[in-house]
Predict the structure.
Amino acid sequence: MSTQPPQTPAASADPSIAALSYEQAREELGTVVRALESGSKGLEESLALWERGEALADHCQRWLDGARQRLDAARARTEDTAG
């Protein structure tokens, strides 16, 4: 089974995001959120951070969706062999 989430337009457009594990992307997303909440960034930098945050959030969701699919498949296999 693949250990990579399906590629999204945002992630495939930014190889630095596509290469991140779930944990790495989640940690960076937290950093982006804190930077935006500080209000200390200018408009252009805030917009860039927002866009990166959206791509990171999407990447994390893809990881979670993939994990759910793997769990569902494992459960189905277990039920098939037990049943």
User: Anything to note?
Assistant: The two ends are 24 Å apart (CA to CA). The helical segments are 9-13, 15-18, 22-38, 43-82.
